[in-house]
DNA sequence: CCCCCATATATGGATATTGCCTATATAGAA
DNA sequence: TTCTATATAGGCAATATCCATATATGGGGG
């Protein structure tokens, strides 16, 4: 797949969903990368996302103007970079939602095609 | 940019669905690459898939044991490599379907989350 | 005081995948 | 002969993720 691992051979995991998912979380509550990682992994049990992937996507989205960051002191531990979504980011999120709806439809159509064949028994002769 | 296009920033087009889609088409009717390209593009109007991508995935799937090919003379024009699915290929297809179902659910959950926010009006203040 | 751990951010290298371009080859039509 | 349709395939550039690693702050235990 686009990179690394992808040995799966089928499907997308959450791959390209990461950016819109991050945007939605930030829209709900502006916060920093470390907390986003935790929210992410709490929300999708079993599916762990690499911290590097989160931080890289946050930096990238700031370059693209979808989010803005500002340093913030923590009560304890190192400073955090707090992210907030921009108007551009909201637009990007809306467009992403439309694409995801299309993808959902594509997957549904494909699943339907498969189920028709499976019902006819073309598949279960092992 | 070149590969993966992905300038979209959100979404996967048909990306990782290519292999299972090819397997399903071959399962329905063993055939050669050129016809698969046409079936593919006829089925998904507007979404054109690169011939190179199809041929590459077919060669790769043969290496992995999901399909078997044999040369066949055409009535006119160059010889064709006809593909048939194997038992391994059917298993791989079944696993891919399970993953796609999971992905569909993930997308649905995400869309629902978004819609809740949109309904509350957190998004349409432009 | 020093070491370890949790918190917090970030980058480099390896690997994988795809789009675009190009190369090869056969055979019928103009 | 040249053009087009059929048919397969590889090189290159771009991109994305994973894995490992680097850096840094501050609290607790010894």
TrEMBL record, chains A, B:
Coiled coil among keywords: yes
Residue intervals of the Transcription regulator PadR N-terminal domain: 23-95
Key words, A-Z: Coiled coil
Pfam family, one: PadR
Coiled-coil region: 90-120
Keyword Hydrolase: no
Signal peptide extent: none
SUPFAM superfamilies: Winged helix' DNA-binding domain
PANTHER family (UniProt xref): PADR-FAMILY TRANSCRIPTIONAL REGULATOR (PTHR33169), TRANSCRIPTIONAL REGULATOR RV3488 (PTHR33169:SF14)
Name used for this protein in its record: Transcriptional regulator PadR-like family protein
Species, as recorded: Desulfoscipio geothermicus DSM 3669
Taxonomic placement: Bacteria, Bacillati, Bacillota, Clostridia, Eubacteriales
